């Protein structure tokens, strides 16, 4: 029987398991054998592959992480590595692969398609940094986790009349910081997409809010801006307000996926199998206008991200 394979690659994201489940179940329903490849592209190179059945993905829709494990594979990222992986796929009689991951994983999928193995990419990353898609699997869960954590930080910042500088993940993308910053009412939101000035965008805003009686502050920093610990020191020195820094880190990557991530992952996983069934290749499944659609990988990789400046400006006006 013809088989398809599924792998997760790059940083894990909550909802990847829901996507794996959808691919396995849809694949089997449509008459394919489904192989689970462990640890991303590394599993193709080392033959770490298992035959999946309907029950292999039972009870994983609500679990964080990825049951297939994940990795970033330097060996695969060479022409020889891609060739070796393509040959492994042919030996396994694999007619197509669903790759769940970010931009780096999509580049791998494009190269593997070029070497004769049809690939379909699914956007899975907490960063929401895939230009072609309005939404990436894991983003909703990460945002909600960050909000929950910062609500806790706020309790203690408020009790002590302190300022808390909080860094969220996102690599070079400010989406997590923006959404979370709005949701927690951060006094300032620093993202790599928008230039900022220490005095004007942080200190002046804190002083202004102080005049109307505000005595505790959350300053939101995107990972791509960095310097969070030093920034907290500088704020304390300049304002005399006791300031603490918190880097939320990998807590944002784990946890049970939200309803949204489970549903989007299920729809996208199903769509990927439909595409392979129809003989399509080199496509990514994306969200556009709230709908699940697909696009050529090469075209998707050439797109530029658009930052939501409107929401950023709204945040500045109402978080005062
Ligand atoms: O892409 C997800 C992400 O968590 C980014 O936000 C972050 O920059 C990076 O991965 C961290 O990678 P690692 O887990 O390898 O340290």
From TrEMBL:
<dbReference type="InterPro" id="IPR012828">
    <property type="entry name" value="PFKA_ATP_prok"/>
</dbReference>
<dbReference type="GO" id="GO:0048029">
    <property type="term" value="F:monosaccharide binding"/>
</dbReference>
<feature type="binding site" description="in other chain">
    <location>
        <position position="211"/>
    </location>
    <ligand>
        <name>ADP</name>
    </ligand>
</feature>
<comment type="subunit">
    <text>Homotetramer.</text>
</comment>
<dbReference type="GO" id="GO:0070095">
    <property type="term" value="F:fructose-6-phosphate binding"/>
</dbReference>
<keyword id="KW-0021">Allosteric enzyme</keyword>
<dbReference type="GO" id="GO:0061621">
    <property type="term" value="P:canonical glycolysis"/>
</dbReference>
<feature type="domain" description="Phosphofructokinase">
    <location>
        <begin position="4"/>
        <end position="276"/>
    </location>
</feature>
<dbReference type="GO" id="GO:0016208">
    <property type="term" value="F:AMP binding"/>
</dbReference>
<comment type="similarity">
    <text>Belongs to the phosphofructokinase type A (PFKA) family. ATP-dependent PFK group I subfamily. Prokaryotic clade 'B1' sub-subfamily.</text>
</comment>
<feature type="binding site">
    <location>
        <position position="162"/>
    </location>
    <ligand>
        <name>substrate</name>
    </ligand>
</feature>
<keyword id="KW-0067">ATP-binding</keyword>
<dbReference type="GO" id="GO:0006002">
    <property type="term" value="P:fructose 6-phosphate metabolic process"/>
</dbReference>
<feature type="binding site">
    <location>
        <begin position="102"/>
        <end position="105"/>
    </location>
    <ligand>
        <name>ATP</name>
    </ligand>
</feature>
<keyword id="KW-0963">Cytoplasm</keyword>
<keyword id="KW-0324">Glycolysis</keyword>
<feature type="binding site">
    <location>
        <begin position="21"/>
        <end position="25"/>
    </location>
    <ligand>
        <name>ADP</name>
    </ligand>
</feature>
<dbReference type="GO" id="GO:0003872">
    <property type="term" value="F:6-phosphofructokinase activity"/>
</dbReference>
<dbReference type="InterPro" id="IPR015912">
    <property type="entry name" value="Phosphofructokinase_CS"/>
</dbReference>
<feature type="binding site">
    <location>
        <position position="244"/>
    </location>
    <ligand>
        <name>substrate</name>
    </ligand>
</feature>
<comment type="pathway">
    <text>Carbohydrate degradation; glycolysis; D-glyceraldehyde 3-phosphate and glycerone phosphate from D-glucose: step 3/4.</text>
</comment>
<dbReference type="InterPro" id="IPR022953">
    <property type="entry name" value="ATP_PFK"/>
</dbReference>
<keyword id="KW-0547">Nucleotide-binding</keyword>
<feature type="binding site">
    <location>
        <position position="103"/>
    </location>
    <ligand>
        <name>Mg(2+)</name>
    </ligand>
</feature>
<dbReference type="GO" id="GO:0030388">
    <property type="term" value="P:fructose 1,6-bisphosphate metabolic process"/>
</dbReference>
<feature type="active site" description="Proton acceptor">
    <location>
        <position position="127"/>
    </location>
</feature>
<dbReference type="InterPro" id="IPR035966">
    <property type="entry name" value="PKF_sf"/>
</dbReference>
<dbReference type="InterPro" id="IPR012003">
    <property type="entry name" value="ATP_PFK_prok-type"/>
</dbReference>
<keyword id="KW-0460">Magnesium</keyword>
<dbReference type="GO" id="GO:0005945">
    <property type="term" value="C:6-phosphofructokinase complex"/>
</dbReference>
<dbReference type="GO" id="GO:0046872">
    <property type="term" value="F:metal ion binding"/>
</dbReference>
<feature type="binding site" description="in other chain">
    <location>
        <begin position="125"/>
        <end position="127"/>
    </location>
    <ligand>
        <name>substrate</name>
    </ligand>
</feature>
<protein>
    <recommendedName>
        <fullName>ATP-dependent 6-phosphofructokinase</fullName>
        <ecNumber>2.7.1.11</ecNumber>
    </recommendedName>
</protein>
<feature type="binding site">
    <location>
        <begin position="72"/>
        <end position="73"/>
    </location>
    <ligand>
        <name>ATP</name>
    </ligand>
</feature>
<dbReference type="Pfam" id="PF00365">
    <property type="entry name" value="PFK"/>
</dbReference>
<keyword id="KW-0808">Transferase</keyword>
<feature type="binding site" description="in other chain">
    <location>
        <begin position="169"/>
        <end position="171"/>
    </location>
    <ligand>
        <name>substrate</name>
    </ligand>
</feature>
<feature type="binding site">
    <location>
        <position position="11"/>
    </location>
    <ligand>
        <name>ATP</name>
    </ligand>
</feature>
<dbReference type="InterPro" id="IPR000023">
    <property type="entry name" value="Phosphofructokinase_dom"/>
</dbReference>
<keyword id="KW-0418">Kinase</keyword>
<feature type="binding site" description="in other chain">
    <location>
        <position position="154"/>
    </location>
    <ligand>
        <name>ADP</name>
    </ligand>
</feature>
<dbReference type="GO" id="GO:0042802">
    <property type="term" value="F:identical protein binding"/>
</dbReference>
